[in-house]
């Protein structure tokens, strides 16, 4: 069965979000929705999420799930806002516990911050099946970029998060806590076992070489032409390339704000005295 898929581009972070629906039963899932956030002022707002809401309401869809492919490091999730307006349950890979553990330490969140994933409505493991109307989303854990990375196979479409990008965009970095290039290699090879005509939907595209932004390719096209990992590239070659590239990458602009919010399933940190909420910025003191 072929789901109906509507992509939404969050331009400030080059994030693709999706509404996946069963046209017959008018049921839908939202994948990787982004919250607008201005790092300079600390303001967050919902213009991008409101576009998704308008689409869902126009199409009279019932949202059953809000699915995260992983705890993103480049945008804040709008999942709880969408849930408050449209309903649905928020799900993520069960590897989120490892991500929470790692970043509880980074942000010194203390034992008051639970690292068992309870902030989410559902944690998903290997080969689970969730229903979206008459559609079935099957989970394929694809760790490597993060410990919690999960791909969703829905009919003839697979939503791969940051596991692979468009063929000319390559693959995601593996240098965050819990990242592992060897694991990413295995995860991608696993995706490549899907039928070559399977449609692949990516979470980001940066339009390399100035080409127009795209969100969709196929497993066959990735296997033939992914610049980091096409058929014939060995694990050792891939790991060497990925490690070399990661060593030259800057910390993502929104890493600390995004992760602090996303490991809470998109809730902002609790208010301090006076009712205001704050984000932490861990410092590295390199003074002589
Ligand atoms: Fe990511």
Percent of residues in beta strands? 15-25%
Number of helices: 7
First-residue to last-residue Cα separation: 62 Å
Q: What is the string of SSEs from the N terminus onward?
A: EEEEEHEEHEHEEEEEHEEHHH
Q: What oligomeric arrangement do these chains adopt?
A: single chain
Bound molecules: fe (ii) ion
User: In which order are the strands of the major sheet placed?
Assistant: 1-2-3-6-8-9
Shape designation: globular
Beta strand count: 15
Unreliable stretches: none
What Rg do the Cα atoms give? 18 Å
Q: Helical amount among residues, as a percent range?
A: 10-25%
The mean pLDDT is 97
Structural class: alpha/beta
* Biggest sheet statistics: 6 strands, mixed
What does this structure look like?
There is one protein chain. The chain has 288 residues and is α/β, with parallel strands linked by helices. The chain has seven helices and 15 strands. The chain has helices spanning 47-58, 79-86, 96-106, 181-191, 219-225, 235-247, 255-262, and strands spanning 4-10, 15-22, 27-31, 34-38, 43-45, 62-67, 76-77, 89-93, 122-124, 129-132, 135-141, 150-154, 157-159, 199-201, 216-218. It has a six-stranded mixed sheet with strand order 1-2-3-6-8-9, covered by helices on one side. A six-stranded mixed sheet has the order 10-11-12-13-14-15. The protein has a three-stranded antiparallel sheet with strand order 5-4-7. Helix 4 links the parallel strand 13 (157-159) and strand 14. The longest helix has 13 residues, at 235-247. The protein is globular. The mean pLDDT is 97.
């Amino acid at each position: 069965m072929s789901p109906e898929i509507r992509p939404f581009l969050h331009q400030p972070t080059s994030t693709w979000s999706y509404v996946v629906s069963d046209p017959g039963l008018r049921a839908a899932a939202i994948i990787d929705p982004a919250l607008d956030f201005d790092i300079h002022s600390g303001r967050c707002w919902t213009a991008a999420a409101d576009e998704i809401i308008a689409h869902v309401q126009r199409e009279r869809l019932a949202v059953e799930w809000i699915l995260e492919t992983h705890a993103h490091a480049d945008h804040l999730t709008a999942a709880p806002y969408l849930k408050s307006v449209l309903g649905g349950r928020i799900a993520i890979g069960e590897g989120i516990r490892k991500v929470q553990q790692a970043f509880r330490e980074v942000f010194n969140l203390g034992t008051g911050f639970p690292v068992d994933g309870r902030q989410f409505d559902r944690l998903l493991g290997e080969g689970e099946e969730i229903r979206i109307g008459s559609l079935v989303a099957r989970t394929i854990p694809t760790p490597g970029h993060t410990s919690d990375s999960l791909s969703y196979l829905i009919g003839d479409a697979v939503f791969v998060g940051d596991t692979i990008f468009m063929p000319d965009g390559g693959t995601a970095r593996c240098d965050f806590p819990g990242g592992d290039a060897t694991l990413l290699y295995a995860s991608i090879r696993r995706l490549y076992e899907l039928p070559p005509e399977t449609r692949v939907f990516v979470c980001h595209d940066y339009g390399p070489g100035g080409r127009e932004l795209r969100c969709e390719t196929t497993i066959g096209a990735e296997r033939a032409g992914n610049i980091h990992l096409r058929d014939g590239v060995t694990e050792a070659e891939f790991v060497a390339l990925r490690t070399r590239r990661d060593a030259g990458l800057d910390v993502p602009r929104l890493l600390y704000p995004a992760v602090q919010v996303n490991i809470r399933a998109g809730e902002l940190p609790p208010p301090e005295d006076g009712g205001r909420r704050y984000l932490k910025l861990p410092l590295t003191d390199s003074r002589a």
